UniProtKB/TrEMBL annotation:
Residues 13-35, 103-148 have a biased composition (Basic and acidic residues). PANTHER family: CONIDIATION-SPECIFIC PROTEIN 10 (EUROFUNG) (PTHR36569:SF5), PTHR36569. It comes from the Bacteria. This is General stress protein. Pfam families: KGG. Residues 1-148 are annotated as: Disordered. InterPro entries: Stress-induced_KGG_rpt, Stress/Virulence-Domain.
Length: 148
């Protein structure tokens, strides 16, 4: 008599096999459609706090698995993709919003510290001529501003 226990599949194995079969039988559009439907259903059933919590958990998990270069690479790709889709006004708008949000959360000492760090980093990457050039440009801009 055959032993039925040896033919029994674990839930994990059954899920894997089902997933493989589905992947063989469906294309990218199928997955986009079910992803869209799933996202809409989830949005109906959950609030902002839910998304903040899962975003936090996902960010923590990602941080454990990736290094600085990973974030530099995805930041570069994201910046390039965003630049293709947005104009100068978009960047001015988000810059203003970011500046306002930051100003609400930080004091004068914070800005002094980040200014100092930025100055130190910049000085490591540029020479005297760089500073002469930007000083000249700043002076010309100020002059034009005063003449208006």
């Amino acid at each position: 008599m055959a032993d039925n226990k040896s033919k029994t599949m674990s839930t994990e194995e059954a899920g894997r096999k089902g997933g493989e079969a589905t992947a063989r039988n469906h294309d990218k559009e199928f997955y986009e459609e079910i992803g869209q439907k799933g996202g809409e259903a989830t949005a109906k059933n959950h609030d902002k706090e839910f998304y903040q919590e899962i975003g936090q958990k996902g960010g923590e998990a990602t941080a454990k698995n990736h290094d600085k270069e990973f974030y530099q690479e995805i930041g570069q790709k994201g910046g390039e993709a965003t630049a293709k889709n947005h104009d100068k006004d978009f960047y001015q708008d988000i810059g203003q919003k970011g500046g306002e949000a930051t100003a609400e959360n930080h004091d004068k000492e914070f800005y002094q510290r980040i200014g100092e760090k930025g100055g130190e980093a910049t000085s490591k990457n540029h020479d005297k001529e760089f500073y002469q050039e930007i000083g000249e440009k700043g002076g010309e801009a100020r002059s034009r501003q005063n003449n208006d």
